[in-house]
Amino acid sequence: MLYQELIRRKRDGAELTRPEIAELVAGITSGKLGDAQLGAFAMAVVLKGMTLSERVCLTECMRDSGAVLSWDQGPVLDKHSTGGIGDTVSLVLAPALAVCGAVVPMISGRGLGHTGGTLDKLEAIPGYDAAPDADHLRRLVAQVGCAIIGQTGELAPADRRFYAVRDVTATVESRDLITASILSKKLAAGLDALVLDVKYGNGAFMADLDAAEGLAHALVAVGNGAGCRTVALLTDMNAPLAPAAGNALEVQVALDLLAGRARHERLWQVTLALGAEGLVQAGLAANLRAGELALEQALVSGAAAECFGKMVASLGGPVDLLEAPERHLPSAPVIQPVIAPRDGVVSGFDTRALGLAVISLGGGRRQPSDRIDPRVGFSDILPEGADVRPGTVLAHVHAADTDSAARATQAYLDACQIGDRAPSRALIAKRIGPAQGDKPPA
Known about the structure:
Helix content: 40-55%
Oligomer: single chain
Number of strands: 12
Order of helices and strands: HHHHEHEHHEHHEHEHHHHHEEHEEEHEE
CATH topology of the largest domain: Pyrimidine Nucleoside Phosphorylase, Chain A, domain 2
CATH class of the largest domain: Alpha Beta
Structural class: alpha/beta
Number of domains: 3
CATH superfamily of the largest domain: Nucleoside phosphorylase/phosphoribosyltransferase catalytic domain
Distance between the termini: 32 Å
Largest sheet: 4 strands, mixed
Radius of gyration: 22 Å
Low-confidence stretches: none
């Protein structure tokens, strides 16, 4: 089978068969399909699109390009977010789901663009190993119930190469290819159920609600088509989800919630909503209310905190992280307040600008080879609706030096809007997925 003929067929709008897609993915994995041909195929998909059948086939073939994990216990459940600012849900939700009876092998990623990555946050914890070998991963999940790690070399290798080519050929934005990329990695973890947090707003990759909804429908259709019970929530990212942005600072927020020291309402609500959907999909809760109650109990009782602590220690982190985070999380040498210049209320954010400001501080990557400074970012972010007057502290900047702190302070003032009243928006705009009473796909 000639690769150029398959590329030509897709270029001309034909629907590729499963054997044809399998041949292409095998060529991606082996390297027999050259970068030029892979880029041409990606562009053909951008221009002509794929049917649902093609998307399912591509996802399954990319999943099967490497190892597919299997588990002796279950149900196996995971959550994925399309990325935002202050999104620390995974750190709280994974152990809470495990306490509720789920097996949670959470394969997470690094920061992408202006958004922070779960792995970058966890690696702010000294000693944390986000890439354990397969035997260690299995022991950890069996003993603790959850593990938040990165994609190993064995999982969906076709996706890794395909994404690298898409990144330099202006084909990243294809809904078909985004869907296959996300789900191939997740399904390689051997999931029974998956809940998706698809974000929209000025801090999300898809600012437009309709575009985010289209992606959610594509992800849900392919996930269910590949045999994994999948549901998505469309959540607001027009403001930071948590009162911090930056790796160690967001870990601190998650630890405070787990330990019961603080509860930030936006983060709490999204965590419960996603977790309840996941428990229902996995058959661990009869309905959403029962799922929320189970998660609340896991968090309020301290059981989720204990589970998280065991996971961190098993992956090389400190055993007393939850009890004494200040002893272990790195702290920036310069911490200074951002002062409100006038009376009013916090009426909105340019949330993407806040993410870019964290990158400018050194908390994200401009190039793939860049090293991240886990100490930097913003903390104590006042939420929308907070009353302010001249002198009110809007947030704190954490920086490596006074010059970068000054630049970040100005960037924050530019991004934080002070007006007469706060906007009224739903935190969770929509649910996309099968009805709760439907049976899982065969």
